[in-house]
């Protein structure tokens, strides 16, 4: 049997109520049609993820963890965060362990992840939506970094770990690498963990885990939101890291060249420059990086500027599916 917390409130509700349900392994298989390939969403280091629906009609995402080396540490770290609730964090509803495999049950975010929207050929995010998604992510990080029981460092902020709900609210996901520590403290990791291109260079050198590493990773994500580019363009004759490319263009004031072509020029230049400068500060030296609170304030300022400019025409749509 599995202890499952059922989210009874809507996605936008301020007051969320949870009631404990017991659900069998049989229902998990039933919900996903026996982990059918047609319900397959994606795969990470720890296992595969499937969409499903419980018998009560609740849409879920089920992570099937089958790597023996991941089960114990992943369950220990993730379940320690099961009580952490915020509108911009994907809710862990429950888990079930069986022999050498286990299942983690999450709320389902119907619009996939940010990576799909940035790089999908038939998907376009407007400038305003990009700002709102960035603010959602930053608010989620702010909550984690100031959590009363200790600063929670995510350690793997990247577009594929930013999920988009049915109403286009962004939620941080995948806390398998997260670490809880005292505020303003750091933890020395025995090995560098994270995803290539998003890992703080200073952390790679000294192995010190702290909230500043999340700020760096989020800065890289901001650059991707602005440019629609990947962290490293391997198709180029001279591959260049995204932050280095941004600094080069910023120095030459060729900022428009960095903008995602999908935006079709429909963005506030003032707000774009504000966020580009923010992203480069986030990815700069640790001592110069802003706090996540400062990040939220600057992003909200950029959104306010953009809304006042009224970028999009009345007939245009905020996104294209």
TrEMBL record:
PROSITE patterns: PROTEIN_KINASE_DOM, PROTEIN_KINASE_ST. Coiled coil: none annotated. InterPro entries: Kinase-like_dom_sf, LRR_receptor-like_kinase, Prot_kinase_dom, Ser/Thr_kinase_AS. GO terms for cellular component: plasma membrane. One of its GO terms (molecular function) is protein kinase activity. Residues 35-303 form the Protein kinase domain. One of its GO terms (biological process) is signal transduction. This is Protein kinase domain-containing protein. It comes from Vitis vinifera (Grape).
């Amino acid at each position: 049997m599995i202890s499952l917390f059922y989210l009874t409130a809507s996605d936008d509700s301020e007051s969320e109520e949870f009631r404990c349900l017991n659900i069998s392994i049989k229902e998990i298989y039933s919900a996903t049609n026996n982990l059918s390939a047609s319900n397959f969403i994606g795969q990470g280091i720890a296992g595969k993820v499937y969409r499903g629906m419980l018998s009560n009609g609740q849409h879920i995402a089920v992570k099937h963890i089958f790597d023996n080396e991941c089960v114990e540490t992943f369950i220990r770290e993730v379940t320690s965060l099961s009580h952490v609730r915020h509108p911009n964090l994907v809710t862990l509803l429950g888990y079930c362990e069986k022999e050498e495999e286990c299942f983690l049950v999450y709320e389902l975010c119907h619009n996939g992840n940010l990576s799909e929207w940035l790089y999908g050929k038939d998907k376009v995010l407007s400038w305003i939506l990009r700002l709102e998604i960035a603010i959602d992510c930053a608010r989620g990080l702010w909550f984690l970094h100031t959590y009363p029981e200790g600063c929670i460092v995510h350690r793997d902020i990247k577009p594929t770990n930013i999920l988009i709900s049915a109403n286009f609210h962004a939620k941080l996901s995948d806390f398998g690498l997260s670490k809880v520590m005292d505020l303003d403290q750091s933890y020395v990791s025995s090995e560098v963990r994270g995803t290539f291109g998003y890992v703080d260079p200073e952390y790679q050198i000294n192995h010190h885990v702290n909230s500043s590493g999340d700020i760096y990773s989020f800065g890289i994500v901001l650059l991707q939101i602005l440019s629609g580019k990947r962290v490293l363009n391997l198709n180029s004759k001279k591959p260049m890291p995204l932050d280095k490319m941004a600094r080069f263009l910023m120095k030459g004031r060729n900022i428009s060249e960095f903008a995602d072509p999908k935006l079709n020029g429909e963005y506030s230049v003032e707000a774009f420059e504000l966020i580009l400068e923010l992203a480069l500060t986030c990815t700069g030296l640790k001592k110069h990086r802003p706090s996540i609170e400062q990040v939220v304030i600057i992003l909200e300022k950029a959104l306010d500027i953009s809304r006042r400019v009224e970028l999009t025409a009345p007939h245009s749509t905020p996104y294209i599916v």
